[in-house]
Design a protein that fits this description.
The chain folds into two domains: 276 residues; 192 residues, no CATH class. It starts with a strand and ends in a 33-residue tail after the last strand. α3 packs across α7 and α4 runs parallel beside α5. It has 14 helices and 20 strands. The protein is α/β, with parallel strands linked by helices. α5 links the parallel β4 and β5. Strands 10-20-11-19-12-18-17-14-13 form a nine-stranded mixed sheet. Bound molecules: zinc ion. Zinc ion (ZN) binds next to loops.
Amino acid sequence: MRIAIAGFQHETNTFAPTVATYEEFEKRDAWPELLVGDQVLTRMVEVNIPIAGFVDAARRTTDWDLIPILWCSAEPSSYVTDDAYERIVSRMLDGIQEAGDINAIYLDLHGAMVVQSHEDGEGELLRRIREVVGNKMPVVVSLDLHSNTTDAMCEHATAITIFRTYPHIDMAATGARVLHHLKYALDGHSIFKAWRRSPFLVPLTAQHTGSTPCAELYAKATDMGGDSVLSAELSMGFPAADIHDAGPAVVAYGKTQLGADTAVDELYQALLDAEAQFCDQLIPPQEAVRRAMAHTQGPIVIADAQDNAGAGASSDTVGVLTALIEGRAQGAVLALLDDPDAVSKAHEVGIGAEISLSLGGKSGQPGQHPYNGKFLVEALGDGNILFSGTMYGGFVGELGPMAVLRVIDGQSDVRVVVGSERCQCLDLEIFRHMGIEPADQHIVVVKSSVHFRADFEPISNEVLVAESPGAHPCRLDVVDYRNLRKGVRLGALGPTFGA
Ligand SMILES: [Zn+2]
């Protein structure tokens, strides 16, 4: 068997300030740069990425010939430009055609890509692949838990598997999981499918799979394989995408249509029954700082959930920073605030120097402004970080020059890790690279919504989620949606869109 494999990942926040150009997909960030041909096989080894899991499982359990085409991703942001999309999709389609006789295709996709000219980037990609290979060839796909899974994706893909964890510790396992569907299809069996879309959206902060109700929903999905069911899949959706099909979806695959229909109905009903249990416990940053300082034992981890680069935000807002300073926080560190200008000034003056800066707040979002103050340059770094955590472990990120700036105000004890590339703070090594051991701090602020929990929850005494300014909205009832389908609820038990 000859199986073409490729990956193209982007999570698009249509409310974010910056777009994803071709260059964003070409460069290395926390994940690898654009990989072509055999680079996909040599670089995606023993890392937690879907395509790495697929390749590993295929090598261990089959004698298939894998034909790698390309793999790329860009940090979440606003729309993928038409230029980037068309260039990357053309290369994928050319690669599929140049691969000669192939028996199947595996794709490592996200599911929440919005292109300037296409609301459903993955659905459009799959439609174009079907134009090339026809409707009979098995085309299997793995998707992110945050996929806004659409009719086009379900129709064009032979089978889809979806992450079952958030933090995503099963990315490689999800790539490996779809191998079972592919083997079944290549054995000559038909795969029957059914899917349903949720009548309500769920903010990311309520999608943690370690908490109710996602813990129970994903346990149920995992248990639902059976005689007539190949798998039941649940995507929680990415609500920061203002598109018709945003939100959770349930997909099931069966050996019979009845098997698929029964499984999809059962999991869909469980999702509907759980609506009242989705809760994200956002608190104002001032209260988060007050509660953290009231603890005698740290570290208290405060998530700056709405300024999460990993959900497309600018990661340069200063709401929580200001709350720390005004709340006279002690033993506090914050990462990763994106401000290349400030980093470059810190590198110019060097360690031990004091500088006045307008820090952060430069991404042009309405109502956002920098924090103006004096800082001591405490440490400098090159941003080449070997990640050690469950999600990114094994990758060397290239985050560009970094600096630790201590706020000089005589009242608080606050340090900020400032970076030059937007990157979600989800790995302890981001602090350690700058000489800071997070476990020894009293307050650790991370610009992250949920992913930080995998690495930071084990070292924390308590986790608080702050509602501070940022381009990744968690309170969905106030978001200025235009393109959602009429009748969908903005958050669990939320108001109805278009009412
Ligand atoms: Zn995700």
